[in-house]
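Problem 12. The chain below contains 111 residues. Write out its predicted structure in token notation.
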Amino acid sequence: MKFLLGMVLLISATQLQASDWGGKSAVIEKMYIYATSVIIVQGDVYAGKAGCANNNKWSFYWSSLDEKVADRVYSALLAAYASKTPIKPIFHPTECGPENAKKFTGSFVFE
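Solution.
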């Protein structure tokens, strides 16, 4: 049992290290939801570790998330946009998303 718990913690720590947490918490300025992708304009000029060209945007393809995660992300994004609640998205450290914006991993923090 201790071994299993240790492996879970190790995997979790590895996933956290393989993410880009450098973005700032900010209100979503504009949100473009398409059938295959989502583009978010948040106004943060953080370039991200991946060096994507559009510093004020982040994006992802729906196909990069499983269905349950996509539903939760969609609901949370709409709620954050409507309520003007600042969120801090977590980015992929080496890849860019649609429109050469920072690639969203499916995780964010409400602050």
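Discussion. The mean pLDDT is 81. Students who got a different answer should revisit the alignment rule from Section 12.3.
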